[in-house]
Amino acid sequence: MFFGKKINLVGLDIGSKSIKAGEVLETKTGRSLRKFGMIDIAPGVIEDGAIKDADAASQAIKELFKSNGIKDQNVAISVGGYSVIVKKINVQKMTEAELQETINFEAEQYIPFDINDVNLDFQILGENEHNSNQMNVLLVAAKKDMIAEYIDLINRAGLNPCLIDVDAFALQNNYEFNYHPEDESVALIDIGASKTSLNILKGADSVFMRDVSLGCSQVNQKIVALIDCSPEEAEQIKQSEHSESIAAEDLRGIVSSVVADWCAEIRRALDFFYSTDPDDNIKHIVLSGGGANIAEFRQLLAVETSTEVDIIDPFQAFEIDDGQFDASYLKQIAPQAAICLGLALRKVDDK
Ligand SMILES: Nc1ncnc2c1ncn2[C@@H]1O[C@H](COP(=O)(O)OP(=O)(O)OP(=O)(O)O)[C@@H](O)[C@H]1O
Ligand SMILES: [Mg+2]
Q1: What angle (nearest 5°) sits at the alpha carbon of residue 235, between those of residues 230 and 236?
Q2: pLDDT in tens, 192-238
Q3: pLDDT (tens digit per residue) in 131-151
Q4: What distance lies between CA 96 and its chain's CA centroid?
Q5: For burial by CB atoms within 10 Å, which of 55, 105, 155, 342 has the most?
Q6: Is the CB of 197 inside a 6 Å radius of any atom of ligand 1?
């Protein structure tokens, strides 16, 4: 029916602070940004990747599509956080069909959940470099109930979920499109409101991936705990230059302790990666998500990891109509758009 043409998808990144939607069109000269928008959702509607209030979330998605004139109903979404596990494993060499048969058995030892409770997917990466009888396989496991919740949410919003990706892969997709990485190892880190995903790339291959439950809302929680305000007020206080409600010194202290926490966690993940691959050297960290905007975090991370730290420009390689998009707005929200645009670059039969 589509004459082998890949169906275009709207990228839909469902965050706990804001939902982002983007549409990209393939042109003769590249990819052009057709639509992009974001909508904030109330604290508590989505927490650490789990949908707590599907009504409110689906309303927000409907509103987002309407206010940005997005009519296409086929969407690509991504999941991340604690309920998603991505691991590189070694198995005996076999065909894809054979692995399909035995993947549950192979995967069981690597998954901290009951194997019957997860959806499994895999990709054969090639022969193992240390043992020619074995092959490397990228294993992805996501909790079934969480996937079902997301599909239900998309359906409630009147949309058609065509592709379910992993946050870290969507981020990688955006990065590769914009930066054409060569052999150098790069760590991509997305710090959102409630989850952080880390993906180490060697050239175009993802060699290590970890999601942790850290994010910018930790700052909000500490503000709430200190001055007993609502989560909405805490967000406002955090984003404002001056606030009557909290001493500037206290706010600085909160931000410092949270970003120190993030840096420690990132260092742990990098150390773990180095323990498995001591010869590698990550020279460059590329940040995305709202947390990338925190200057103190970027500075501390650069010092603690002796690495160059930059913010991603997820729009860099897109053709963008200046008349349609406000360049200063895109610049302001750029780090938060990375995953969404990585999803918008997907086609329906992408793996
Ligand atoms: N300039 C800034 N300074 C401090 N925090 C910021 C800044 N800009 C954005 N943030 C924070 O970033 C967070 C939103 O980032 P993002 O849109 O990446 O999160 P999300 O995708 O909704 O969340 P998640 O993916 O974790 O569910 C909010 O907590 C917001 O307060
Ligand atoms: Mg996010």
Answers
A1: 95
A2: 999 999 999 988 888 889 888 899 999 999 999 999 999 999 999 99
A3: 999 999 999 999 999 999 999
A4: 28
A5: 342
A6: no
Of 10, 16, 24, 8, the C-alpha closest to 314 is 24
The answer to whether the beta carbons of residues 184 and 284 sit under 8 Å apart is yes
Q: Residue 25 and residue 23: Cα distance in Å, rounded?
A: 7
Ordered by start, the domain boundaries in the chain are 10-84+141-219+252-344, 85-140
Report the alpha-carbon distance of residue 264 to residue 256 in Å, rounded: 12
Is the distance from the beta carbon of residue 259 to the nearest atom of ligand 1 less than 6 Å?
Answer: no
Pocket test for ligand 1, best of 251, 336, 341, 343 (most atoms within 8 A of CB): 336
CA-wise closest residue to 22 among 75, 80, 58: 75
CATH superfamily of 10-84+141-219+252-344: ATPase, nucleotide binding domain (3.30.420.40)
Q: In 10 A of CB 9, how many CB atoms?
A: 25
Please name the fold of domain 85-140. Answer: Dna Ligase; domain 1 (3.30.1490)
Contact predicate 145/117, CB 8 Å: yes
* Residue 37 host element (H or E): strand 31-40
CB-CB contact of 191 with 215 (8 Å): yes
How far does the centroid of ligand 2 lie from the alpha carbon of residue 1, in Å?
A: 35
Q: pTM of the full predicted structure? A: 0.94
